[in-house]
From TrEMBL:
This is DUF1062 domain-containing protein. InterPro entries: DUF1062 (IPR009412). The lineage of its organism: Bacteria, Pseudomonadati, Bacteroidota, Bacteroidia, Bacteroidales. It comes from Bacteroides stercorirosoris. Pfam families: DUF1062.
Amino acid sequence: METTFTWEIKVKNCPLLIKKCSHCDSDRFYCSDKFRMNAQKKNIDVWLIYRCVKCDNTCNLTLVSRSKPDLIDKSLFHSFSVNDKEAAWQYAFSAELERKNNMKLDYGSVEYEVISSISPEDIQNLSDEVISIRIKCDFDFNLKLSSLVRRCLSLSANQVKRLFEQNVISTSASQSLQKQKVKNGDVILIDREQLTKSLKEIAR
């Protein structure tokens, strides 16, 4: 028998942009959640505006370059026009945008919370042989699966490593669990009996 629960990851901010400021000694810029649009003749350019965390100096990241307005999706064009925050965050977390602008993002600056439908105590008290936990995450920010498990189960890094090695906690991915990054839709499988047994041994 298998029961599926959810760990929903809610980010609180966008990753900072790692870039040397030309006006001060800072090397971090934050996403302003605003776009800049500039029309020249029949073409349009669109940028996402970043600001220095110290002096507020601006840095613009290219989103659209020399494009015909009618080639841009109408809903997206509207998002640019009204400075839609959701659209800005989609770009701020975009690995494609990171590559396109030859920039580097500080994913370690992203703060998040996890909304869990089950507690560590609940897991141990269930009768199911296998506990299935599906991850919901709107943005990828290089969060390690091991870090998420450690946080949600209140375990140490060594404890999580041991549980991974013993296959008490597993996923369907072929990649090493220690190196695996969290992706939306990932499913974590927990052997409830073995987890309870391991946690009792750890507590001794």
